[in-house]
Amino acid sequence: MSRPTMIENFLRPPRTTSAVVADAVRLCGVLSIVVAALWFELTDAGILAFALPALVAPRFVGVRPAFDIVCGVTVLVAAWSNVVDLYRSVPSWDIPVHLVCTGVLAALAYIAAARISIVPLPGGEGFRRRTGLVVTTAFGLAFAALWEIVEWVGKLFVDSILVTYDDTIGDMAVGGLGALIAGIFVARVRLTAEGTAERGHDADQDAAGVTPSR
Fold first, then answer.
1. Count of C-beta atoms within a 10 Å radius of residue 35
2. What pLDDT digit, counting tens, does each position of 90-123 carry?
3. Which of 17, 62, 88, 183 has the highest CB neighbour count under 10 A?
């Protein structure tokens, strides 16, 4: 059976409980924008809208429902933490957010790159674990740098965001660590959804399981 395209992945109806939960998280992301626009500031709605591509990307690239849920929850926590000012009110809250969010986005970026044949798909022909590890870590370091650029722009033009040299370097280091951990997952754990329905397995159990890559 041929591999589905990204459009087919996006349009496919959810077939398992886990997939329904993942779509519910996406819906929460859309509703969050409406809530922020009505009861918070328009800039807050903009922050949540900025996170929307990361919420829909897992469906396009065809990840396992469990990873899809992790992506959605992580991105929403990161965005809402900004809206409700957790980064300022809770010391060091940004450390776990940078660690997990950068890692999740790095793994997602590797799978997206694999879908357009830039790198080998995890578990597929030509895939090497070191490729998944190195490329995912590189994606994460790039995301970490971009995140700090966005914070710097926000400080200049949007709000009084706390941006210092030590904070910037620390956040990038933590993000890089998260990307390295994500690279280990990409190298050793199947995060894509290929084969779950076609093989006739219980898809919910498969979505929650861990299958090593070749």
1. 15
2. 989 999 999 999 999 999 999 999 999 999 999 8
3. 183
d(CA 177, CA 183): 10
85: left (phi over 0), alpha (psi -120 to 50) or beta: left
Integer angstrom CA distances of residue 176 from 21, 29, 37, 109, 157: 29, 26, 33, 14, 27
186, amino acid identity: V
Helix (H) or strand (E) holding 48: helix 42-50
State the average pLDDT over residues 181-188.
Answer: 97
189-212: buried (b, 16+ CB within 10 Å) or exposed (e) per residue? bbbbbbebeeeeeebbebbeeeee
> Within 13 Å of residue 7, how many CA atoms lie on the same side as its CB?
0
Q: What is the mean pLDDT of the chain?
A: 87
CA distance 152 to 163: 7
The vertex-25 CA angle with 20 and 28, nearest 5°, equals 125
Q: Count Cβ atoms below 10 Å from residue 162 Cβ, excluding itself.
A: 10
| pTM as predicted | 0.85
